[in-house]
Amino acid sequence: MSTVTAENYVIRTVRPHEWPALRRLRLDALRDPVAPIAFVEDYEQAAARPDSFWQERAARSGAEDGGVRQVIAEAPDGTWAGTVTVLIEEPGTTDFAGLPVERRQGHLVGVFVRPEHRGSGLVEALFEAGTEWAWRRGVERVRLVVHEDNVRARGAYRKAGFVPSGVVVSFSEDAEDRELELVLARPSGLDR
Ligand SMILES: CC(C)(COP(=O)(O)OP(=O)(O)OC[C@H]1O[C@@H](n2cnc3c(N)ncnc32)[C@H](O)[C@@H]1OP(=O)(O)O)[C@@H](O)C(=O)NCCC(=O)NCCS
After folding, report:
1. How far is the CA of 51 from the centre of ligand 1 (A)?
2. Which of 71, 118, 142, 172 is the most exposed place for a label (fewest CB within 10 A)?
3. pTM of the entire structure?
4. What's the gap in Å between 160 CA and the centre of ligand 1?
């Protein structure tokens, strides 16, 4: 999978030997000012993980038969400018929030674009690559969860066609801490 966007970013899957860059991008994402409402993990937890964790993650992300794919956007100078990870969720399993998964679906997580690359349409290019991979794996829909207060991310998801499903989850006891589930239906006419 390799597409050059108008801005000359290369959108592609992470390769196994690239785990140091994957680790760097994740740790930078976790230092973003919105990280506390954008990601479940915090910087200290991620920074404490051994190299083997990142090596396994990079290897798994690129495996053809795996249920997960991490896509990155590489800028002309080689910088990893952004990323999205797609998980395939199977019916009969339980999701991250403890709710039953009712259909085969994709789940977008770990969405991040470096501040200096935002507003460039990169996130849409990342989503396109990630969702295309998920559609090819026969999912009925693609979903994600976004914090109600993360207005920029919500704007980006709206532009990409995601709509609220009505499901609201929370990762804390705080009633204000509302995560909205947004969904993208499988495009009609796509073969399974
Ligand atoms: C979420 C993220 C990937 C989106 O990428 P991006 O390049 O910033 O997104 P875009 O600029 O294409 O789209 C954001 C939209 O929200 C709008 N927006 C930005 N700030 C806004 C605000 N405060 N209120 C309302 N809308 C806002 C933008 O104007 C834009 O819409 P437009 O293109 O119609 O003007 C990026 O901002 C990011 O990495 N954020 C930090 C991590 C994060 O929040 N991840 C998501 C976790 S669920």
Report:
1. 31
2. 172
3. 0.93
4. 11
Diameter of the chain measured on Cα atoms: 46
pLDDT of residue 21: 97
Retrieve residue 107's tokens. Answer: 């789940």
Pocket of ligand 1 from Cβ distances under 6 Å: 32, 34, 38, 111-113, 118-119, 122-123, 146, 150-153, 155-156, 159
CA distance 127 to 143: 11
Could you report the per-residue pLDDT of 25-76, keeping only the tens digit for each?
Answer: 999 999 999 999 999 999 999 999 999 999 999 999 877 777 999 999 999 9
Q: Using 50 as the pLDDT threshold, list the residues of the chain that sit under it.
A: 2-4, 6
Q: Which atom of ligand 1 is nearest to the CA of 32?
A: 41
Domains of the chain, start order? 2-185 (3.40.630.30)
